[in-house]
Write a structure and sequence with these properties.
With about 110 residues, this protein is an all-alpha fold. It has 6 helices and no strands.
Length: about 110
């Protein structure tokens, strides 16, 4: 869970709903926070997260990518089990590896 929480440190703000995945990834790329991913791989990864993750978890993940600030405390307050969060994030990363060409997102 620590490694997945670190990904949240890399990854929205109050108006995030109006910001698209491409814009989130473009900002993270400008700030050199995509690790070894391309901007198109990041966009693909976020779209996989939209499909795989609980909406609240996905929102926090995007907030962390957009702002570059950790959302670990907010994660804990979701009321979702750690195992469920980790499973959703791992499945998202697995789908991104398979479908987006992402090899090692955020350095894991």
């Amino acid at each position: 869970m620590i490694r997945l929480a670190a990904a949240l440190t890399l990854c929205a703000g109050p108006a995030l709903a109006a910001i698209g995945n491409a814009d989130i990834c473009a900002k993270a790329d400008r700030e050199k926070r995509l690790g070894n991913m391309t901007q198109s791989q990041c966009t693909c990864l976020l779209s996989k997260g939209d499909k795989r993750m609980d909406p609240a978890l996905g929102k926090l993940w995007k907030e962390a990518l957009y702002t570059g600030k950790s959302r670990v405390n907010e994660l804990r307050s979701l009321g979702m089990s750690e195992a469920k969060m980790e499973r959703q994030m791992r499945r998202t990363l697995r789908d991104a590896r398979r479908d987006c060409g992402v090899k090692n997102p955020f350095g894991f």
